Structures are given as structure tokens and as C-alpha cells.
């Protein structure tokens, strides 16, 4: 039994390492003097794998996801984890999917400078509160972290790049949308700057009990973190700041080219926006929320309504030719950092394109990819 387990472990390790590489953590100590610190006051951090060959002057940045904290109690919990302290972060992480260094797994970006920005502020890098609560020691400085890390990467050579791409998953995908124009401003005009957001297009809908749960949640996040001044002014001049945390209200005014990757049945949004904690006391949605194939006909009807609401919110992108999108019907959340969904023989496909191929075509301007999948369960490529 032990021998069999050891063989399996070695096989699994070999399989994982062929699709990914370990990249060291870089702690940005100089950021502390700028007040650009994690929730616990520790310096921010990132992982950088240098480019080579034809990609040596190109950069692609992926911002880590991991939800948000809407109150002091939640932020205190994060403070003692890798989502609130660089002291708790892993010294190395695997780079796979859009960060892989192998062409067969990552055809466009494999030899670019690839960066994974760690998420330790709990406010999608929008917060900036000068005061530090002496009782909790919490720092809300996400916007300063974003600027400090980008300035560091500029000094590392990104200022001389041909392409500079900002991306992120989940809360990092929302960061990408909200900071897309800020990222553009930091770079010289000669650089081709674009943004693509993975599973970051969170929609403002009522939950199954008819309450605006996510709207209140985002409003609390924005208030706690002092985010209003770091949200797109074109939105905050018209709407309450909490509403400008929703991409459907902020994206149309973004000037920088923007690409959206999302499932119309985003699993995280189903479990946390459509059916948040407390709305399903009997657990009727537990199985459905974990696996769409187990949903009842009535639950599927609700999910089809969610899809229609998502597509309506997507109209907030506006008609600009600089917009692109890949909206599939897989019950998924975050698809760019997962090798199986990013690029491979069994990856999901939309109009016969993997996510990696569609993003590559859009970034390199081979195709203005704008496609929406047919409703569940018609797509048989989701696996």
C-alpha cells in the first residue's frame, strides 16, 4: 500500500511539474515607507518569472483573487492569513495556465515576463485609509500596494515593454477592471497596454430571497476601506461609490482595451450572490451550488434567469471596439490559471477556441473576439 501511494505521489508530482513551475516570492520591503502595506502592516509581495527570447520585452501580470472583507471582524481573520499578511504567504507558488513557462501549455505568454501579484488588502486594491486602528492594527492600503508594486515592475523593465497586460482572477479580476486605466497611466504611451479580467464581472442582482445582499456587501467594503476616491470618477460622479464596485456600472467609461472572461453560470456568484449564506436554511441549494448537473428543474430555471441577468449586466461594457469577451456556459470560476481550462486538448471551447487562443487573438489583435455561449447544457466541451 505504501509503495503504491509513493508511486502515485511521484507520478502526480511529475504531472504537475510538467505543466507548471515553482516561482519564488519577492517581498517588496521598500513599499513600507510609502505606507503600502497589507492588512497587518507587513510589506506586499509578488512572484516574477523572467521572460526570454521574443518575449523578453513583454509583460503579463495576474492579480490574485480571494474575496473581500466588509467589516473589522472579517478583516481580522484575513490579517492572520496569507490574504492579509505577506508573513503568511508561501515562499513559492506554481505558475501554470496563463503563467506557465512552456509553450505547449501557454502558447502566447510562455516566454513573457510573468507576474503573480499577491492579494493581502481585502478590498481589490482600492482602499486607502491613513489612520490605523490602534486596537486592531488593521491597515486599509490596497490602492497604495497596487501603485507600489507596479512602480517596482516598471523599474524591473516593464517601462521598456512592447506589451503590458494586466489581468486577474475573481477579486483580482475586479481589480483588473477597476485599475485598468490606472495601469495604463503608469506606462509610457509607446507601450501597448491591455487588460483582461477572469471571473471578475460580478453582477448586482437580488438573491433568491429578494434582497440586495451583494449590493450591501460591496457598499460595506467600499466604506470600510475608504475606496471611493480610488474608484473610476466617471462612475462615482453619477452613482453611489458602492455601486461603482460593480463592473456593469464602471466598465463602459474605461478607456483602455478590456477583455472579459467569465462563465454565465459563475459558480462563485451562484453560491455567494444568488444564494448567499442565510437564504437557504434547509440546504436545498447545497448540491446544485456545487454541481450544476445535480440541480432540480426549478433550480435550473433560476440559474437560466441568472444567466440572462448576467448577460444584461454585460451590456455595461458598452459598444466600444476595444472590448472583447469570452462568456462560456461552464459551471466555473477562474479559468485562466487552471491549465485544464486555459489550454489543452480537453479544454472548454467557444466557437472552437480555447480561452488561451481567444485571449491571444485579442491581445495580439488577430481577432476581436466577442462571443457568448449557448445556454446550459448545450456546450459539451465543459467537461
TrEMBL record:
Main localisation: secreted
Signal peptide segment: 1-18
Subcellular location: Secreted, Cell wall
EC number, UniProt record: 3.1.1.-
Gene Ontology MF: a single term: pectin acetylesterase activity
GO terms under biological process: cell wall organization
Key words of the record: Cell wall, Cell wall biogenesis/degradation, Hydrolase, Secreted, Signal
GO cellular component, one term: plant-type cell wall
Keyword Signal among UniProt keywords: yes
InterPro entries: PAE/NOTUM (IPR004963)
EC top class, as a word: hydrolase
Function: Hydrolyzes acetyl esters in homogalacturonan regions of pectin. In type I primary cell wall, galacturonic acid residues of pectin can be acetylated at the O-2 and O-3 positions. Decreasing the degree of acetylation of pectin gels in vitro alters their physical properties.
Family the entry assigns: Belongs to the pectinacetylesterase family.
Protein name: Pectin acetylesterase
Organism: Solanum pinnatisectum (tansyleaf nightshade)
Amino acid at each position: 500500500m505504501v509503495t503504491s501511494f509513493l508511486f502515485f505521489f511521484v507520478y502526480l508530482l511529475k504531472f504537475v511539474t510538467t505543466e507548471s513551475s515553482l516561482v519564488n516570492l519577492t517581498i517588496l520591503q521598500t513599499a513600507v515607507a510609502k505606507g503600502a502595506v497589507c492588512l497587518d502592516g507587513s510589506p506586499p509581495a509578488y512572484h516574477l518569472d523572467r521572460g526570454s527570447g521574443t518575449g523578453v520585452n513583454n509583460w503579463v501580470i495576474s492579480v490574485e483573487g480571494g474575496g473581500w472583507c466588509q467589516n473589522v471582524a472579517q478583516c481580522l481573520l484575513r490579517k492572520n492569513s496569507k490574504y492579509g499578511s505577506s508573513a503568511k504567504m508561501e515562499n513559492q507558488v506554481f505558475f501554470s495556465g496563463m503563467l506557465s513557462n512552456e509553450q505547449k501549455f501557454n502558447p502566447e505568454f510562455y516566454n513573457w515576463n510573468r507576474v503573480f501579484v499577491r492579494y493581502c488588502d481585502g478590498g481589490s486594491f482600492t482602499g486607502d485609509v491613513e489612520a490605523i486602528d490602534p486596537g486592531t492594527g488593521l491597515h486599509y492600503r490596497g490602492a497604495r500596494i497596487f501603485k507600489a508594486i507596479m512602480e517596482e515592475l516598471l523599474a524591473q523593465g516593464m517601462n521598456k515593454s512592447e506589451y503590458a497586460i494586466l489581468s486577474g482572477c475573481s477579486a483580482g479580476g475586479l481589480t483588473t477592471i477597476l485599475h485598468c486605466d490606472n495601469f495604463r497611466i503608469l506606462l509610457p504611451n509607446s507601450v501597448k497596454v491591455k487588460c483582461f479580467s477572469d471571473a471578475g464581472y460580478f453582477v448586482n442582482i437580488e438573491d433568491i430571497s429578494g434582497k440586495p445582499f451583494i449590493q450591501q456587501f460591496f457598499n460595506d467594503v467600499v466604506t470600510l476601506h475608504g475606496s471611493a476616491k480610488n474608484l473610476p470618477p466617471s462612475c462615482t460622479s453619477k452613482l453611489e461609490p458602492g455601486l461603482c464596485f460593480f463592473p456593469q456600472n464602471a466598465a463602459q467609461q474605461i478607456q483602455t482595451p478590456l477583455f472579459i472572461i467569465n462563465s454565465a453560470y459563475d459558480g462563485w456568484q451562484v453560491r455567494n450572490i444568488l444564494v448567499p449564506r442565510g437564504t437557504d436554511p434547509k440546504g436545498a441549494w447545497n448540491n446544485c451550488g456545487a454541481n450544476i448537473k445535480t440541480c432540480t428543474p426549478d433550480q435550473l430555471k433560476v440559474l437560466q434567469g441568472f444567466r440572462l441577468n448576467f448577460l444584461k449586466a454585460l451590456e455595461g461594457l458598452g459598444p466600444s471596439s476595444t472590448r472583447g469577451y469570452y462568456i462560456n456556459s461552464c459551471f466555473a470560476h477562474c479559468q485562466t490559471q487552471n491549465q485544464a481550462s486555459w489550454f489543452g486538448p480537453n479544454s472548454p471551447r467557444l466557437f472552437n477556441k480555447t480561452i488561451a487562443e481567444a485571449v491571444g487573438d485579442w491581445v495580439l489583435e488577430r481577432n476581436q473576439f466577442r462571443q457568448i455561449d449557448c445556454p446550459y447544457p448545450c456546450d459539451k466541451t465543459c467537461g
